[in-house]
Design goal:
Elements: E1 3-5, E2 8-9, E3 13-17, H1 18-27, E4 35-40, E5 43-52, E6 56-64, E7 74-80, H2 86-97, E8 101-106, H3 117-137, E9 145-146, E10 150-151, H4 152-162, E11 165-169, E12 187-192, H5 200-208, E13 212-214, H6 223-237
Parallel strand pairs: 1-4, 7-8, 7-12, 8-9, 8-10, 11-12, 11-13
Antiparallel strand pairs: 2-3, 3-6, 4-5, 5-6
Helix pairs in contact: 2-3, 2-6
Length: 241
């Protein structure tokens, strides 16, 4: 069934407006009595289309869904900005995997550095739209928030606020593997470096902040691949996949 995130509902009826109205009526060509999934306050319900107005679809909330879509593990992905459109792929696929939050980071070797706030805002808005579409496609009840771009130092402060485990895959780590790591909480902060990798000094700062630096094996993964892999493994290790 098709899926819609609902802003207006009294618990018995729900309204689809704006882009959802157009998508429902003109693209999907749904009709009265068709059933849809409605996500209301992060919970999934079965809805039935009752009627179409000029700019609104009126749905009845039939009952709560039986499916548990969201993980008990909250993953905050700190992703150093990659070149070109790779960040769009990162947002899309990590949303599908189940991350909760995505925080873009500028580290020392990050090639992309957005100096104009207006340009940065457009990028973040674009990434959030991609997260929304990926959440619909992958049947999420929560749309991951792509936060504003932060510096490496700002990230260290944010890590203290969020709490939880900190995991950093690093190509120069040989001893500690991800399979050796047992999470100590239900919050995992995963930090992925840029194309050029982290500086040694940045790794030391992360270790001082409590991070566990791990190897992902003998092969070097691209920055857009590493987060997807490590987050899927964490979901599996905690029986959330």
């Amino acid at each position: 069934m098709n899926r819609f995130f609902i802003d207006e509902s009294n618990g018995k009826t729900a309204l689809l407006k704006g882009g959802d109205f157009k998508h429902c009526k003109s693209v999907l060509r749904l009709r009265e009595n068709d059933e849809v999934y409605l996500v209301i306050d992060k919970k999934e319900y079965i809805g039935r289309i009752e009627s179409f107005g000029d700019d609104t679809v009126f749905c009845a909330v039939v009952g709560e869904s039986k499916y548990k879509r969201e993980s008990d593990l909250k993953i905050n992905l700190f992703q150093c900005l990659p070149k070109a459109s790779k960040m769009e792929l990162i947002v899309q696929k990590n949303t599908e995997v189940g991350v909760s939050t995505i925080i873009p980071v500028v580290s020392h070797r990050t090639v992309v550095k957005l100096s104009e706030k207006s340009r940065e805002r457009k990028k973040v808005d674009r990434w959030n739209k991609i997260a929304m579409e990926a959440a619909k496609q992958s049947m999420r009840n929560v749309v991951p928030l792509v936060e504003d771009i932060v510096s490496f130092k700002e990230m260290l402060s944010i890590l203290k606020e969020k709490g939880g485990d900190i995991i950093v895959p690093y190509e120069n780590e040989d001893n500690l593997g991800l399979n050796d790591v047992e999470l100590e909480s239900d919050i995992a902060n995963v930090i992925i470096g840029p194309e050029g990798g982290f500086e040694d000094s940045e790794i030391e700062e992360l270790k001082n902040a409590g991070a566990r630096v791990v190897t992902l094996g003998p092969r070097i993964l691209r920055t857009e691949t590493a987060g997807i892999v490590i987050n899927a493994i964490l979901m599996y290790k905690t029986k959330n996949i």
